[in-house]
Amino acid sequence: MLAPATAHAEETGPDVPRLTDRHGRVLTLHGWNIEDKTHRGDEALTAVTERHLRDMRARGFDFARLLVFWDDLEPSPGRYSRDYLRRIERVLDWAQRHDVKVVIDAHQDVFGPAFGHRGVPEWATRTDGLPFTPHPDDWFAEYFEPAVQRAFTHLYADPDLRRAQAGMWRVLATRFARHPAVLGYDLINEPMGELRPGEDLATAARRIERDELTPMYNRLADTVRSADRDAWVFVEPTPVVGEGVPTGLGRVDDPRVVYAPHFYDSAMEAGGDYDPGSGWIEAYERAVTEYPRRYRVPVVVGEWGPLNNALPHMNRFYQDALASLGRYASGWAGYVWCYGGGYCAVDDTGAFRTNKELTAEPYAEAVAGTVRSAAYDSDAGVYRLAYRTASGGHRLTELSVPPGTWRITADGGATVVRRAPGRAWVLAGPDRLVTVTARRG
User: Fold this and answer.
1) Which helix (H) or strand (E) element contains residue 399?
2) In angstroms, rounded to a whole number, what is the distance separating the alpha carbons of residues 27 and 141?
3) How does pLDDT run across 291-323, given as a tens digit for each residue?
4) 424: left (phi over 0), alpha (psi -120 to 50) or beta
5) pLDDT, tens digit, for every residue of 180-211?
């Protein structure tokens, strides 16, 4: 059984590389997905407002995973929506204004509009006439409908669809390559594929990842890199990783790759409570750290968070989950920053929903050196960061703290040079061992 986690450390160590910025500083991303799955066409993205970015930053979050949809970007072959690109840019401008880093996510749910969802356009959906039966009470089951599975096969295999998908990414990367808010691009959300007769799900997932997703990611990474030399490229396994199954993905031959799994438990997705004794988080952590250790890439978890966050064990879940994420991930994006019920982080007044407030904790957004340790004791309200500064390069480390009164100090010859609500900047000389402490109250 997992021990209660009132304190946790962020010590990825040498096993899992860390995400860095263009100055070489070590990044930690804490944030949320932002989306508009309801509106399409002329109304696309209108549900995302500046309030989303302003409120996230005010609570200490520095990261947004922005969902965009191919069907809105390219409603007919070769015709890209300028209005949609302008709306994406408007969100990025808000993010820049509020100092939030953004990953642009090419999102799909159950492939796309041909099956009543969002993602790949209908004109790029080929089913060979296979059947599709909706599952209104279990949308994820629709991934296993024959027509949906065949559509993924054609997307991965058909040369014209490969070119179309690359063209979509070329448009996005070319348009936003120089936008200051853009950290990277998530090439496809929760990819799936077609099971073969006799295959179990885990075997099929590893084959799909190895034989179909790896070549696709290499193609798309090359496309993005032709337009944007600096952004990170985020690659996802299939959602089967949530069952503790290590990915079959191979090497993506690009110098700036991020492994971006999602962190969902099928029982909790169905509305169940967290079981602290199940070993699920431990199995998930073992599964998702295998790939980054092998291929020397950082990890950012692109989605996580339960549907029903008010059940009896959910407080424990958030503590255990944050402790786990801190051991191996350079960051995470919770699902989802919206104002209401269900998965929403906050209610319609903007107040955190039950247990979601645990996601707002102190962390080091950017460290100018090598992180030795970073730990937050939520009971005591104390965060400590220890790092060794480099002999040259950037000198400024940035901290984020949640709303409230925090006393921030630094030793090792470092100085807290500036404070702002929820932020602090620490300056240190070369080759120093620095400790920064943030104390609540």
Assistant:
1) strand 396-400
2) 36
3) 999 999 999 999 999 999 999 999 999 999 999
4) beta
5) 999 999 999 999 999 999 999 999 999 999 99
